[in-house]
TrEMBL record:
Keywords: Phosphoprotein, Phosphotransferase system, Sugar transport, Transferase, Transport. The keyword Transferase applies. It comes from the Bacteria. One of its GO terms (molecular function) is protein-N(PI)-phosphohistidine-sugar phosphotransferase activity. Pfam families: PTS_EIIA_2. InterPro entries: PTrfase/Anion_transptr, PTS_EIIA_type-2_dom, PTS_IIA_fruc, PTS_SugarTrans_NitroReg. This is PTS system, fructose-specific IIA component/PTS system, fructose-specific IIC component. Residues 1-145 form the PTS EIIA type-2 domain. GO terms for cellular component: membrane. GO terms for biological process: phosphoenolpyruvate-dependent sugar phosphotransferase system. The keyword Mitochondrion does not apply.
Length: 146
């Protein structure tokens, strides 16, 4: 589910809203969905239930979206940390976003989301990801851990 082409480094976003807009644009530009608004609405809805800001600078925003061509993980490492209402109160710099088909009977995404959350709970994994400086390094880390 991790695609190296959907890993982005040093993204200049200053708010959670700008991150959601970036995720939506990536999804449209890669033919995953036709409209940015459906992604942004889905991410906002999920965030309204409870924060997706984890700990130590990581967030895992996710949304179930109608008319999605395929479920994807989009990974973003920001240039600067941003506010996100994280569980530890710290700012966020690393986003692992997941978009899944709302109508899919396949619930594989729940396993993937759980696995990603477990990976991010381990300090040594967070440290590796924070130190990674390019797409290939981040991709390799996730491939080894998933």
């Amino acid at each position: 589910m991790i695609n190296q082409q959907l890993i982005f480094i040093d993204i200049d976003a200053h708010t959670k809203e700008e991150v959601f807009e970036y995720i939506a644009k990536v999804a449209v530009n890669n033919g995953i969905v036709n409209q940015t608004s459906i992604i942004i609405e889905g991410l906002h809805y999920r965030e309204s239930l409870s924060t997706t800001g984890m700990i130590d600078g990581f967030a895992i925003p996710h949304a179930e979206v109608a008319d999605l061509k395929e479920s994807v993980v989009i990974i973003i490492k920001l240039k600067e940390e941003i506010d996100w209402e994280s569980l530890d109160g710290e700012k966020i710099k690393f986003i692992v976003a997941m978009l899944v088909d709302k109508d899919s009977k396949n619930k594989e995404h729940l396993t993937t989301l759980s696995t990603i959350a477990k990976i991010l709970m381990k300090q040594e994994n967070r440290d590796l990801l924070h130190k990674a400086n390019n797409q290939e390094e981040i991709y390799t880390i996730f491939e080894k851990l998933l």
